[in-house]
Amino acid sequence: KLKQDLEDTRNDLRRAADEIRVKLHLASMDAKDAWDEIQPRLEDFERRFDAKADEVSEELKALGKDIKKRLRNIKAKLS
User: Is the Cα dihedral 72, 11, 62, 52 positive or negative?
Assistant: First the structure.
């Protein structure tokens, strides 16, 4: 269950990040700053997910939730 939740989170993060990348060229500086802040966290999540795909953890789940929230905030700024 936890592994599936993390895989779902990973897919959600990828979709949101892809959508944001497409819209960023029209974004305000505030959204660009937020993107610059979140991108390393997203990359960290991806690295850690790949490294621990069979050893998923609550810590990784919490990181995914935090990134998802931040991506939603950036997306809202782009709307």
Answer: negative
Token digits of residue 51: 């490294």
CA distance 46 to 48: 6
Q: What is the pLDDT of residue 27?
A: 67
Percent of the chain with pLDDT over 70: 95
Q: Which residue has the tokens 């979140």?
A: 38
Residue 24 has what DSSP assignment? G
Dihedral sign (CA 59, 62, 68, 69): negative
Task: Convert the pLDDT of each residue in 34-58 to its tens digit.
Answer: 889 999 999 998 888 888 766 767 8
Contacts 24+ apart (CB under 8 A), 57-60: 58/2, 60/6
List the one residue out of 4, 19, 27, 33 whose CA is nearest residue 72.
19
